[in-house]
Amino acid sequence: MGREMTDTVMVEIPVTPEAAEVLGDLERRERIGKLVSSILCPPSPGDDPLAAIFASIKSAARADGLTDEEIEAELAAYNAERRL
Q: What is the value of pTM for the model shown?
């Protein structure tokens, strides 16, 4: 099982000025800290929130008639655009 949030350390990460403003709120900062911790170190592979989000998006795309190949092609095109 993962660590309790009372067992935390402070780290610095670069964010946009807009994100820094949002993170000025202690409660929101704590919620985001929990989310980041759970994404980077999920208690078990089945508890990975990022994987669940991707699975949900892929399921919705399939429901709209896209094939796995079309989904992968779209992701590849998106990744190629971001590298430019």
A: 0.51
Under a CB-based contact definition with an 8 Å cutoff, are residues 43 and 33 in contact? no
- In this structure, the number of other CB atoms found within 10 A of the CB of residue 62 comes to 13
Do 16 and 35 sit in the same domain of this protein? Answer: yes
User: pLDDT for 37-76, tens place per residue?
Assistant: 888 888 777 777 778 888 898 899 999 999 999 988 988 8
The whole domain housing 53 covers: 49-83
- 31 with 1, same domain: the answer is yes
What is the 8-class DSSP label of residue 24? T
Other residues' Cβ atoms within 10 Å of the Cβ of residue 39: 13
